[in-house]
Amino acid sequence: MDEVRSAIVATSAKLPKFRVGALVDVIPALRGRFSLSMESVAAAELMAGSRSKRERHVIAKLLAPFERAGRVLYPQPADFQRAATAISRLREKAGRSRSLAQPCSMG
Asked: Which tens digits make up the pLDDT trace of 33-45?
């Protein structure tokens, strides 16, 4: 039997394609070959960026198997603290006065 590898679905580069269902066949094609997980923050970004009932439906359909399988990854409170500390240290080293945590376009 082939080895099953773990993979986390990251969405930043493909957000618009996920929302319109252009990648609907990609996730099922990976099942069995990879143990897939979805980050809750990525799931929230996908849903928040949806611009219509149809797009929300596409995203809900995409997320449902992850939710049923218990494969949605949720950050712990300490994760946010570590991320904030890392950004703070980067700002300190770079000597920047503006925030590195800028709002991003959702596509």
From this structure: 777 888 888 888 8
Q: Are 69 and 40 in contact (CB under 8 A)?
A: no
By the 8 A CB rule, do 18 and 11 touch? yes
pTM (two decimals): 0.59
CA distance 107 to 105: 5
Res. 97: pLDDT tops 70? no
**CA dist., res. 29 & res. 22, Å (int):** 14
Structure tokens belonging to residue 4:
């099953």
Q: Which residues 6+ apart lie within 8 Å of 91 measured at CB? A: 99, 100
Helix (H) or strand (E) holding 35: strand 34-39
Q: What length does the chain have?
A: 107
Q: What is the pLDDT of residue 106?
A: 41
- Nearest-angstrom CA–CA distance, 46 and 40: 10
